[in-house]
Specification:
It is a single chain. With about 525 residues, this protein is α+β, with helices and mostly antiparallel strands. Helix content is about 20%, strand content about 30%. The strands form 8 sheets. A 6-stranded mixed sheet has the order 2-1-8-7-6-5. Strands 19, 21, 22, 24, 27 and 29 form a 6-stranded antiparallel sheet that branches. A hairpin with a 2-residue loop joins β5 and β6. α3 crosses α4. The longest helix is centred in the middle third of the chain and has 14 residues. The radius of gyration is 34 Å and the shape is elongated.
Length: about 525
């Protein structure tokens, strides 16, 4: 008689009493409760080693050294596939064996008697569900044929199949065919970052600087922007680009990101173009049929109203933390994904300067006039001289190297005084980057219309301008050298017909495709 047969005999009376207490039609797994009997003296590893039908899984535990872990005092639950279930696994394939072992063990005890509905985190970091199927309890859709086998440090459930290891999105990107360009960019952004708060100071060097027993962690700043694709409990839908689609995308996007040398030049362009290529490829949640939606919003908050065109010719691959659709084309329009309208709200004082004038922010609470954000500014001249022109200048950040239509939006004086129906008259100057060294030049516009409508909000077209250089503001390049100046163009002798005050709602730069 083996030691386990002896121990099992010792518990037979207690077990029999339990079966007698419950009806003959009840199943053991429906009534497992470790408080009803003394726990066995053997560990999970010892129990599995004694079960002939689990000999293959036991060999896997030995190959990966997980027999030592589940033989320790720590508590685990093991879902052990029987020999038949593992007949197709090559025990010489260490990585495969490791995946199988880690995907069938979880910390803590999980009985089939109390199904919480919460996913169980396995040692592989995958999340699986214990469910009640037609033929009893299941784990990861595999039937549990022998549940709730107690040991001194946990439970064993025997399965009649094994739970396949399922890649997450990040793991999928490592091996997917045809997406080398996308993969090389994303994985190339991973860096080892020193964590002094986690490191142990063990002394000082000759200069008196601290020496650490250093701890480094992997950090990928792009994943921090588009989504944590490597985290199991963060669920996403992702569109991946095949190599030709990647090449097309970076070629299209590249022309918008020409920088003067003073503001990063080619190096900065090479950093930003792939980032803008991937920034709208990820969406929150697992969306099985995105093409059927009316709209879809990326994790960077770009909303697309043509998901049928974006996903129509793709097929999804289900993964442990979402789903991936692979595309042969880059399906985004320039003016939706990155070449967007720029709107400078006049009431925003950051980057705004004025001369020969006082500027006041005003709030509009009515509904007669369509005022952006219900706010505008009042620009009052502080001089009566025709030579000293009152003006306000707005900093214009985030312009791309592209063409824009420029508008200045005026609010009528009647918004504050219904009796004041004087129109405003203005002139406009653009300061733009002209050279690779970052020098600026002035462009004076002479629009056909320079006078506002005194009865309504006026979106006055200033002109179209082709910007040779982009002007993106960032932590490394916080200045925005491109500015737009609006000046009062009313001389004192014209004050009876025109208002010398200016009420400005916003400045708009509208993308122009060429």
């Amino acid at each position: 008689m083996t030691r386990f047969q002896y121990i099992g005999l010792r518990h037979f009376i207690a077990m029999a009493a339990l079966f007698f207490f419950f009806s003959c039609n009840d199943n053991w797994e429906e009534h497992y409760n470790e408080d009803n009997f003394d726990l066995p003296e053997y560990s999970l590893a010892q129990y599995i080693a004694e079960q002939s039908e689990l000999s293959v899984f036991n060999e896997m535990l030995k190959v990966t050294a997980y027999d030592s872990l589940i033989g320790s005092s720590q508590t685990f639950t093991v879902w052990a596939p029987n020999n038949e279930a593992l007949s197709g696994i090559d025990l010489n394939d260490y990585n495969k064996v490791l995946q199988v072992v880690q995907t069938h063990i979880a910390r803590n005890k999980y009985s089939t008697t109390n199904l919480s509905g919460k996913p169980v985190k396995m040692l592989s970091n995958k999340y699986l569900n214990i469910t009640q199927g037609a033929n009893g309890a299941e784990m990861g859709n595999v039937s549990i044929i022998q549940p709730n086998q107690p040991t001194k440090n946990g439970l064993v459930h025997v399965l009649n199949g094994y739970i396949p290891y399922q890649n997450n999105i990040w793991e999928h990107l490592q091996n997917a065919e045809g997406i080398d360009s996308l993969r090389n960019y994303l994985f190339g952004q991973t860096q080892k970052v020193f964590m002094p708060q986690l490191s142990l100071e063990i002394g000082v060097n000759d200069n008196g600087d601290p020496i650490y027993d250093s701890v480094f962690v992997s950090h990928n700043q792009v994943l921090g922007i588009i989504g944590e694709l490597d985290i199991e409990d963060s669920i996403y839908t992702m569109l991946t680009l095949k190599n030709d689609a990647w090449s097309d995308a970076t070629s299209r996007i590249g022309k918008y990101f020409n920088f003067p040398d003073e503001f990063g030049g080619v190096e900065r362009k090479n950093e930003l173009v792939p980032l803008y290529t991937v920034k709208d490829l990820v969406f929150r949640g697992k969306i099985e049929s995105p093409a059927s939606l009316d709209s879809i919003t990326s994790t960077t908050n770009t909303t697309f109203h043509n998901p049928d065109e974006i996903f129509g010719n793709t097929q999804g691959t289900s993964l442990s933390n979402g789903i991936v659709f692979q595309s042969d084309v880059f399906p985004y329009a320039d003016t939706v994904a990155w070449f967007n309208e720029i709107r400078i709200e006049a009431e925003n004082s950051q980057g705004r300067e004025n001369s020969n004038s006082n500027v006041y922010s005003r709030v509009y609470g009515g509904d007669e006039y369509d005022v952006s954000n219900n706010r505008y500014i009042l620009v009052e001249p502080t001089t009566t001289s025709n030579l000293a022109v009152s003006s306000v200048e707005f900093s214009i950040p985030n312009i791309l190297s592209a063409s824009y239509n420029i508008y200045c939006v005026f609010v009528p004086n009647a918004i504050a005084d219904p009796n004041n129906v004087k129109p405003m008259k203005a002139k406009f100057v653009l300061n733009y980057i002209r050279t690779t060294g970052g020098r600026t030049s002035r462009k004076t516009f002479n629009p056909e219309v320079t006078v506002s409508d005194p009865t309504k909000v006026t979106r006055l077209f200033v002109g179209q301008f082709d910007f040779e250089f982009a002007n993106l503001v960032s932590r490394d390049y916080p200045d925005a050298p491109i500015t737009f100046e609006v000046s009062n163009d009313v001389k004192m002798e014209e004050a009876e017909a025109f208002s010398r005050d200016m009420r400005i709602d916003c400045i708009i730069l509208e993308p122009v495709m060429k």
